[in-house]
Design brief:
109 residues, mainly alpha, 4 helices, elongated
């Protein structure tokens, strides 16, 4: 970690609200879970385990973006983050269905 990034994080934590600290902790937990899912996606024994891990990783990303939107409510742009997370959830769902259909039938139509 660079010293400038450490100073930036410490300056933000010193004036953080309790809800912001909890949301930041939730983001850290989500990132650790995403790292574990990424390992499962790379080392999964079957293709279905890998697809499930990638789908769960997409779901964690949706929750992470929504949590960032919760933290950013002070600036008034939380609606953007929530809209983005909803669109990403729809794309994640459709992509997972399309990939599974392609694996099973070797065609998408």
């Amino acid at each position: 970690m660079s010293p400038a990034l450490a100073v930036l994080i410490l300056s933000q934590v010193s004036r953080a609200t309790p809800a912001g600290v909890i949301a930041f902790g939730a983001c850290l937990v989500l990132l650790v879970g995403a790292l574990l899912l990424l390992i499962r996606a790379l080392r999964g024994p079957t293709v279905y385990d890998r697809i499930l891990a990638v789908n769960a990783l997409g779901t964690k990303t949706v929750v992470l973006v929504a949590t960032i939107g919760f933290v950013d409510t002070g600036r008034g742009s939380s609606g953007f983050f929530l809209d983005t997370s909803i669109v990403y959830a729809l794309i994640n769902f459709i992509a997972t269905i399309a990939i599974l259909k392609y694996i099973e039938y070797r065609r998408l139509n």
